[in-house]
Design goal:
Layout (H helix, E strand, L loop, with lengths): L1 H20 L3 E6 L2 E6 L12 H19 L7 E2 L4 H16 L2 H8 L4 H6 L6 H5 L1
Antiparallel strand pairs: 1-2, 1-3
Helix pairs in contact: 1-3, 2-3, 2-4
């Protein structure tokens, strides 16, 4: 009974992370129209209950944010004027929407509390992760 509960909860969390991470995007313009470019980030093979798993997810999110803001250009789309700002915004939105204390902790390993707060990331969650 206990094992089934753990498995169900783990899959619920996994599903939430997959959905939350598909919504971050870089905004680009296409013939005068705003276009949102998104990329799904897989959590397959990750144990998101460990710091190592959260760091790997963070790495995947960071990579996806950079791809969305740079190489995701499609025919007819203008490149974003500042890919660094775009990718930081996309990464911050993904971290914030995931609501995972260990992921926030991984973000804070490379960003300041001030940067996290500016992106709307709940830095109080990092205390829960420790």
């Amino acid at each position: 009974m206990y094992t089934k509960t753990v498995v169900i909860n783990a899959w619920s969390v996994l599903g939430t992370i997959i959905v939350a991470c598909t919504f971050y995007a870089g905004d680009v313009r296409a013939q005068g129209h705003e276009v949102t470019v998104a990329r799904q980030v897989s959590t397959q093979g990750l144990d998101l209950s460990t710091p190592a798993g959260a760091r790997e997810l963070y790495s995947r999110l960071k990579s996806a944010a950079w791809i969305v803001c740079t190489r995701a250009n499609r025919v007819g789309l203008e490149p974003t004027p500042d890919p660094d700002v775009c990718s930081e915004k996309a990464l911050g939105e993904a971290i914030r929407s995931a609501h995972m204390p260990l992921l926030v902790q991984a973000y804070l390993e490379t960003h300041s509390l001030r940067q996290a707060t500016a992106r709307g990331i709940d830095v109080a969650a990092r205390v829960a992760a420790k």
